[in-house]
C-alpha cells in the first residue's frame, strides 16, 4: 500500500480491519459491498471502492457484479499479514498455525498416501475451535495445507499438509524461519536524545513539524512555556492544537501562549485536570498521518537522556481517538 496516498492508505487499513473482524467470525465469507460501505460510512463510497480495487488481488479479493464495483470483498492471507505488520492483533500473534502444521506433518510422515486429519481430531489435539478454523483457512490460503469437504456452516471437514507446507514447517522447526517470513513488525525510527542535547531535540522537532500541511497536535502533561519556542518551526497557516493539564496553566501561562498567538494565530491550547490525564507519553502528531512518542516533555527535551520513537499507525490512530475525546472535554486557555 506504499504507493497509495495517506488518506487512501488509511481507508485501506480500515477496510482490512473490518474484513478481519468479519473473518474472525466467518472465515469463508467476507462482506458485501453495501456492508462495507455501511461500516465505513465516514468515507465516500467511491473512495472506498477505489481503494478496494487498488488492493484487490493482494490484500483483498473483490468480486464485482453488474452495476456494482463491489459485490463481495474478502481479506486474504496477505491482508492479515499486513494488519499484523502494522501492529494490529491477529492470529499471527499466536502459534496455532505451527501446532496445526506439526500435527499434519507428523501424520504425513507416519502414513503412506494421502491422509487427511479430520477437523474434530485437530480441535481435540490443539484446543480452541475458532482459532483452529481461522488458522486452517490462513494456511490453506498460503497453500501450506489443503482441505476437503465442507458444508453445514463449515468450509472444511479435514486437512492435510502439502509438500510446500512440509518444507516451510521444517524451515521453522530447524532454523526458526517464521510464517510469514515478514512476520516481524516493520522497523520504526527511533532517536536517542540527551543529556545536554537540546539542539538535537529541537532539530528533530523542527524536521518533523516543518512538513505539516494542515495540523500539528501536541499532547504533553507538562507543556510549559519552552514548548512554544519549538512551535516557532510550524509553518504559518498550519493549525496547532496543544493538550496539557492544569499543572502548568497557572501564573503567566496564558500570557505566554497569547504572545505566541500574535505570530501564529492558528493555535488553540486546552487543558484537563491532572487527575483526568490518561496519556502515557508525550506525543506529536502531524496531519493525523505521522506521529512520535517522546520520553520527556517538549519544553526541556534534550536536557536529560530520553528516547523519541515513531508511532505505529494503529497506535497513532488510537492516540488520535483518545485526543479527540480529551479535546472535547478540555478547558480553553487561548
Strand arrangement, major sheet: 7-13-12-11-8-9-10-14
CATH superfamily membership of the largest domain: Endonuclease Chain A
Low-confidence parts lasting 5 or more residues at pLDDT below 50? none
Question: Percent helix among the residues?
Answer: 40-55%
Count of the domains: 3
Give the N-terminus to C-terminus distance in angstroms.
Answer: 40 Å
Average pLDDT across residues?
90
Shape field: elongated
What is the number of E strands? 14
Quick one: biggest sheet? 8 strands, mixed
Q: Can you count the helices?
A: 12
SSE pattern, N- to C-terminal = HEHHEEHHEHHEEHEHEHEHEEEEHE
CATH topology of the largest domain: Endonuclease, Chain A
Describe the structure.
Strand 11 and strand 12 (290-294) form a beta hairpin. The chain has 3 domains: 6-84, Arc Repressor Mutant, subunit A (Orthogonal Bundle); 94-175, Winged helix-like DNA-binding domain superfamily/Winged helix DNA-binding domain (Arc Repressor Mutant, subunit A, Orthogonal Bundle), CATH 1.10.10; 190-332, Endonuclease Chain A (Endonuclease, Chain A). Strands 7-13-12-11-8-9-10-14 form an 8-stranded mixed β-sheet, sandwiched between helices. A 3-stranded antiparallel β-sheet has the order 1-3-2. It has a 3-stranded antiparallel β-sheet with strand order 4-6-5. It has 12 helices and 14 strands. Helices cover 42% and strands 19% of the residues. Helix 1 (6-25) crosses helix 3 (45-55). The mean pLDDT is 90.
Which features characterize this protein?
334 residues; alpha+beta; Arc Repressor Mutant, subunit A; Endonuclease, Chain A; 8-stranded mixed β-sheet; 3-stranded antiparallel β-sheet; 14 strands; 42% helix; elongated
